[in-house]
Amino acid sequence: MVIRVFIASSSGSVLIKKTQQDVVGFLEANKIEFEEVDITMVEDQRMWMYKHIPKERLPAKGNPLPPQIFNDEQYCGDYEAFFDSKENNTVTSFLGLNPRPSVKDSES
């Protein structure tokens, strides 16, 4: 399973840049393997992202904005959903990953 974070490297929006940095920084800090997919460089990647976001999760107007997060082809969510999972300490299940063993488990 590969976590894929769809980003826009050439976004003019400071908010989008900050949210992308938050997701990527969190994954790096927690040593969660992921792949960044830049939707501004390859049109096919942007179209793939749009196509694989469930209809009920699409915005009422316009296109979904990055970052969008997938586990392989399974949609995990957008930044708001990621932020909520971070606040609730449920990022592992949000990303569809198996829980990591705790220090206590690895000592047993």
From TrEMBL:
<dbReference type="Pfam" id="PF04908">
    <property type="entry name" value="SH3BGR"/>
</dbReference>
<comment type="similarity">
    <text>Belongs to the SH3BGR family.</text>
</comment>
<keyword id="KW-0729">SH3-binding</keyword>
<dbReference type="InterPro" id="IPR006993">
    <property type="entry name" value="Glut_rich_SH3-bd"/>
</dbReference>
<keyword id="KW-0539">Nucleus</keyword>
<dbReference type="InterPro" id="IPR036249">
    <property type="entry name" value="Thioredoxin-like_sf"/>
</dbReference>
<dbReference type="InterPro" id="IPR051033">
    <property type="entry name" value="SH3BGR"/>
</dbReference>
<protein>
    <recommendedName>
        <fullName>SH3 domain-binding glutamic acid-rich-like protein</fullName>
    </recommendedName>
</protein>
